[in-house]
Design brief:
Elements (H helix, E strand, L loop, with lengths): L2 H6 L3 H36 L4 H11 L4 H24 L7 H39 L2 H7 L4 H40 L3 H11 L2 H8 L2 H17 L4 H35 L2
Helix pairs in contact: 2-7, 3-7, 4-5, 4-7, 5-7, 5-8, 5-9, 5-10, 5-11, 7-8, 7-10, 9-11, 10-11
Length: about 270
Amino acid sequence: MSADTREARPGFAGRVFRGQGRRVLTFVRQAGAVSTLAFRASRALFTTRFEPRAFIYQMEQLGVKSFGIAAATAIFVGIVMAIQFAYSLERFGAKDSVGRIVGLSMTRELAPSLTSLVVGSRIAAGIAAELGSMAVTEQIDAIRALGADPIRKLVVPRVLAGTLLMPLLASFAIVLGIGSAMIVCRVTFGISMPFFLSTAIDTIDLSDLLSGVAKTPVFGFLVCLLGCHFGMRTRGGTEGVGRSTTTAVVAVSIAVLVANAILTQVLLSVLGA
């Protein structure tokens, strides 16, 4: 290999910089495409005919069938939180404060965010796989050929159902999480269940509840929107469906975590909680 050829090749730093630049450009393009899809879905919701049957079907698919995993997440998170806090506070003689801490942490952060993260991954994977299969078999192109709008028929019912269902699932998760923690504290640490429940309820006020539950409609919107985006852009047959599903789950997880950090700060500033 000649010296001129070696000099023409980019160095390690150049290759790293070029690779990072491509990733940034890909992220910008994806963000633009997601924003465009969000605008088109919002416009279709208010300018086209609403389809109640498709909406109710998506409510069942996304909400009812996700209740089990949401309940399991809330129950076991509540159990772990109760054990950890009760064990730690017992060493300092502050075991009576377990109900306050668990109730506040479950209401403000753990139940809404973890429920949205776990359930959102399940919902996004299902949407991406379903729409990805439709994309590779040209069913979405067939919808366009028939003169229908795929955004109205495929995206709007899913996004609307996810936006409305996530607060309901988060509210159930709060109740189940506090209930499981109350039972564990009674069985393991001898804390009275009425005392645990009364201290938890007395500590939680409306601003605490809103600061947790008010974030979940945004989570639900992002989850379904990203699932639809990656599903409808699937190419490459069944292998492409797998890639889209994996990418959707990763993107939803990151989006929920980032949105949670931003919304937590915003809601604390607005509600003064």
